[in-house]
Design a protein that fits this description.
InterPro entries: 2Fe-2S_ferredoxin-like_sf, 2Fe-2S_ferredoxin-type, 2Fe2S_fd_BS, Beta-grasp_dom_sf, Cbr1-like_FAD-bd_dom, FAD-bd_FR_type, Flavoprot_Pyr_Nucl_cyt_Rdtase, FNR_nucleotide-bd. The chain is of the alpha/beta class and 366 residues long. The protein is 19% helix and 30% strand. The relative contact order is 0.12.
Length: 366
């Protein structure tokens, strides 16, 4: 982290060395803190009218929050939005304590109504392209958070079937238990909720997951939870049930080691530098064309031009900035998240992409 002044938390908010915070960082106030279970809390934020456009979001996206640290000044942590833009009026993330999880424990211990929190705009690509699909939603523990947003959105905006397979340690650890019962009662012909309790059935295995999911292998699948659960589920769906990898979506969060809240410095090319490439970028339905200096990362270029390009970690460890190359070639300086199938589809990380060809065409709207 670049912060050197240690912040303190008060009822008014998290006091930080604001000189190191970039203009892309926003501050929202907590209006409510809801105890979901003994280990999970939902944080409800107020969005002022002037930031309403910047905080428009899609079901399945997340917020990156700035949390104080005595050791580094602050740390960045990503938490999924459990609210749906189609059914909920408030912006809400849900946080569950994890063993040795600094951010989750800090928020569960210290977050209070009235506190202000630094954050980045909503981002993430764990988002359905079409809410009218039939969905197979697979969650374990706090992995229910983005899945809940997708579930509520699909029931509100679509007409397809929604199946939720939800694994937890025991009945008391089921986040959103009452809300799920209510939604199942309101949509008996469309929503099926299948609970798996470790205290009763043991840990879910690849074989047991495959058995539960088999009747729904034609659905669009979204998976979120602890690493072993997601690996077993992805293997069961793709390898055992033969589901196309394009229809199996996995949400993966890597630890953020850098400081995505620091100001982004864009250095203009100097005389004598290699001639820039030309990039055409489609973002939110609009095309933009710029000169692209050869050693400049795509995200830095777009932010310097005033575009709200999505991002979170800025270090190649998440997929929030993912975009698709439609023409030309780029090189990625770091890639800790994209798989071979993604690369074959032309998916790259905007925060790590530099041009290899003179002309590049990229879309964030794919």
């Amino acid at each position: 982290m670049n912060d050197t002044i240690e912040p303190t938390a008060t009822a008014e908010g998290i006091q930080t060395n604001v000189g190191l915070v970039g203009s892309h960082v926003h501050q929202l106030k907590l209006s409510r803190v809801i105890d979901e279970t003994a280990e999970a809390r939902s944080l409800v934020f107020e969005v002022p009218e002037e930031l309403s456009e910047k905080f428009r979001y899609s079901p399945g996206q997340f917020l990156t929050l700035r949390i104080p640290s005595d050791l580094t000044g602050s740390v960045a942590r990503c938490y999924s939005l459990s609210s749906s833009p189609h059914t909920d009026t408030a912006l809400t993330v849900t946080v569950k304590r994890t063993v040795d999880g600094y951010g989750s424990n800090w928020l569960c211990d210290n977050a209070t109504a009235g506190m202000s929190v630094d954050m980045l705009q909503p981002s993430g690509v764990f988002v359905p392209k079409n809410l009218g699909e039939n969905f197979l939603l697979m969650a374990a523990g706090s992995g229910i958070t983005p899945v809940m947003a997708i579930l509520k959105s699909a029931l509100s905006q679509g007409s397809g079937k929604v199946v939720l397979i939800y694994a937890n340690r025991d009945e008391k650890s089921v986040i959103f238990a009452e809300e799920l019962r209510r939604l199942a009662a309101e949509h008996p012909d469309r929503l099926t909720v299948i609970h798996w309790l470790e205290s009763v059935q043991g840990l879910p295995s690849r074989a047991s997951i495959g058995t539960l999911a088999a009747p729904f292998r034609e659905h669009e699948a979204f998976i979120c939870g602890p690493g072993p659960f997601m690996s077993a589920t992805q293997d069961a769906l793709q390898h055992d049930l033969g589901m196309d990898h394009h229809r199996v979506h996995v949400e993966v969060f890597q630890s953020i080691e850098g400081d995505p809240f620091a100001e982004i410095v864009f250095e203009e090319p100097e005389a004598g530098d290699e001639l820039p490439a030309t990039v055409t970028v489609t973002l939110d339905g609009t095309e933009h064309t710029f000169d692209w200096p050869r050693g400049t990362k795509l995200l830095d270029l777009l932010l310097s031009k005033g575009l709200d390009a999505p991002f979170s970690c800025r270090q190649g460890a998440c997929s929030a900035c993912a975009c698709q190359v439609e023409e030309g070639k780029v090189d990625m300086l770091v890639n800790d998240i994209l798989e071979d199938e993604d690369l074959a589809d032309g998916i790259v990380l905007g925060c790590q992409a530099v041009p290899l060809t003179d002309i590049v065409k990229v879309t964030y709207d794919g």
